[in-house]
């Protein structure tokens, strides 16, 4: 069953949910109980986007990597292939084409949208020097990813998803425990 977070019933288009067969459920995939796809370009579909079909896969999917305390954490059921997101590149109706960019997550306060900051240097000919500049790019993030401020993300261009969002998160590389990734006060 899908994770229901809205008043309207959420379901994937093209997936029939009312099967009369009581035997073994269909395999997940194109034509199964859950639709997902490979976006290509060398990016792997996350396990959280696909539904685990066997008990061993469920057990391995629930235990995530160890935190600073050294004990494994348990993921809730909602993280293993039960979300519905029509703007997800892996389970929705969005194709990735155009530019592939990398940046740092600057803000993750919006619902399923993050701000990606890209720093670059601009050359000033008059002074023969470079100046620091940056650009902020809003990007949609699927519920299959967990992101915090300071994490490095790879985003891919897609069709316009809203007034300002034209990119989708394809990969998240967690930052080290360096204070959240933003500049900390260094003193004098």
Automatic annotation (TrEMBL):
It is found in: Cytoplasm. GO terms for cellular component: cytosolic small ribosomal subunit. Signal peptide: none annotated. InterPro entries: NA-bd_OB-fold, Ribosomal_uS17, Ribosomal_uS17_arc/euk, Ribosomal_uS17_CS, Ribosomal_uS17_N. One of its GO terms (biological process) is translation. Belongs to the universal ribosomal protein uS17 family. This is Small ribosomal subunit protein uS17. Coiled coil: none annotated. GO terms for molecular function: RNA binding; structural constituent of ribosome.
């Amino acid at each position: 069953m899908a994770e229901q977070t809205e008043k309207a019933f959420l379901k994937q288009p093209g997936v029939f949910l009312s099967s009369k067969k009581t035997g073994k459920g269909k395999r997940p995939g194109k034509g199964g109980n859950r639709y997902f796809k490979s976006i290509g370009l060398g990016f792997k579909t996350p396990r959280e986007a696909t539904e685990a079909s066997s008990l061993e896969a469920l057990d391995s999917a629930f235990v995530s990597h160890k935190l600073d305390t050294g004990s494994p954490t348990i993921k809730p059921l909602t993280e293993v292939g039960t979300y519905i997101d029509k703007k997800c590149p892996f389970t929705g109706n969005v194709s990735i084409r155009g530019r592939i960019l990398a940046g740092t997550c600057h803000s993750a306060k919006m619902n399923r949208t993050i701000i990606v900051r890209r720093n670059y240097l601009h050359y000033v000919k008059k002074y023969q020097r470079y100046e620091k500049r940056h650009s902020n790019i809003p990007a949609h993030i699927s519920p299959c990813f967990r992101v915090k401020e300071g994490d490095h993300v790879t985003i891919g261009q897609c069709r316009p998803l809203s007034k300002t969002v034209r990119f989708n998160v394809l990969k998240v590389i967690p930052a080290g425990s360096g204070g959240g990734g933003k500049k900390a006060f260094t003193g004098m």
